Give the backbone structure.
Amino acid sequence: MFGSLSVQYEVIHNDSLKKVFLYVAAPLIKEVAKKGVKIDLYFIKDHSINAFALPGGKVVIQSGLIENAKSWEEVLGVLGHELAHVTRRHHVRGIIDNLGLYVILSAVIGDVSAIAGTFANMGGELASLSNSRAFETEADETGWEFLLKARINPKGMISFFETLDKKHGSKMDGYLSFMSTHPETKERIKNLKEKLKEHPVNFNPIDNDFESFKKALDQH
């Protein structure tokens, strides 16, 4: 999946930008690492508002996400959601749901050729597998918990959803997550605001200029 993406998109190679992003996201990445996920970060030049994490912890940030975000907290809110898909193994569970019992049985009996043939026939279609709404809700909740434990203000997740809702309304689906079918945006915002009332936590400020990072990324 990642190989096909690297052919389709322009990858931004800049170690300085990556270093800054990993520094800012370090508390969140530390929480995710406790779940056994090692992060491998990539930026791609694409104006779509998107970020996604593939199985194994490859995280892809599209330039459009940075361009449209107002703060680090918004970016990290989206990142927390996408990383939750990985820790909850939604990609794998989604593949099983899509391919069915045949693949499971083939794996159990050791019929590797059958599995390989199934994946080969599907080709790039695997890249468009959608998570269920239950997975999306679970990713919202798990990502929220990651942010709280990392002491990152989860309001960023809410404000980014609100921005997308204003810009795209019912067209939001498909703008945010690579392999997702999102629940109703307003419903998600409402649920997250309720969670915020339940968890009044003191959050750590992010001591890095987001606008400078945004400008530097835009120059590539």
About this structure: The CA atoms of residues 161 and 167 lie 10 Å apart. The two ends are 24 Å apart (CA to CA).
